[in-house]
Specification:
By secondary structure, the chain is mostly beta strands. It is built from 2 helices and 11 strands. It has one domain. The strands form 2 sheets. Strands 1-6-5-9-8-7-11 form a 7-stranded mixed β-barrel. Strands 4-3-10 form a 3-stranded antiparallel beta sheet, with no helix packed on it.
């Protein structure tokens, strides 16, 4: 079980990330007000798995490790993912459904770092974030995500 520590959106490609205390997640669209929900993100024109740009998540523990291991200060605003969570290994959520507040999400794809991110933050984050760049998720059920909301795996029902 994890918890949401930060929520950010950007209204357009390359725009500074804006902090929020809550955000509406819309099924099949993404986060209201975010560049990818509007189809105006840097990578919007590139094909990817369905829903892979609706919501992006990042582990707060990775920020801690960057600071300790690589002496790189990277804030939740800088990593350019929508949600920063603590207490959950995002890689374990690939292919899984999980809830954050009233929103049901499904882990679709990893979210590796890219040269575009490194250029925007002006810090050597590419190599230290390999395999730790976050998770892309699709919105399965709409609702509100708030700071402090719990992230928990959705129980799976096995048929007999």
């Amino acid at each position: 079980m994890g918890r949401v520590e930060a929520i950010f959106i950007a209204p357009s490609a390359g725009a500074p990330m804006q902090p929020l205390t809550e955000v509406e997640a819309v099924e099949g669209v993404g986060l209201q007000g975010d560049r990818y929900a509007a189809g105006s993100g840097t990578y919007s024109p590139r094909p990817t798995d369905p829903g892979a740009r609706e919501v992006t998540l990042f582990e707060a523990e990775v920020l801690d490790a960057l600071r300790t291991d690589s002496h790189i200060e990277l804030s939740p605003r800088e990593h350019r993912r929508n949600l920063t969570v603590r207490g959950v290994r995002l890689g374990n959520l690939l292919g899984q459904r999980f809830r954050i507040g009233g929103v049901l999400l499904e882990g679709v794809k990893d979210c590796p770092p890219c040269e575009h991110l490194q250029a925007l933050v002006g810090k050597p984050v590419l190599a230290p974030l390999v395999e730790r760049g976050g998770l892309r998720a699709r919105v399965v059920e709409s609702g509100t995500i708030r700071l402090g909301d719990v992230l928990q795996l959705e129980a799976t029902v096995l048929s007999a």
